Amino acid sequence: MKEYAIYPFQTMNITQNWNQGNHINHWKQSTNYSDKPWDEAGKDINQDFFIPQNDFIVEEVLGINSNITNSVRLKSINKLYIPYKKDPDYLYLTLTHMNEENLKHISEGQIIKKGSTILLEGKDGIATGNHFHITANLGKYYGLLKNSNNAWCFTYDKSLLPEEAFYIEKSFTNIINSQGSNFIDVPKEINIIGVPVEKNSLKNQIETTKSVKCYKNPNLDSEVIGNVKEGFYNYTEKIDDGTFIWYNIGVGYILYQNEFINIYPKNKKEEEKDSNSKFYKKLFTIITYWIKKILNIYSELKK
Ligand SMILES: [Zn+2]
Question: How much is the pTM?
Answer without folding.
Answer: 0.68
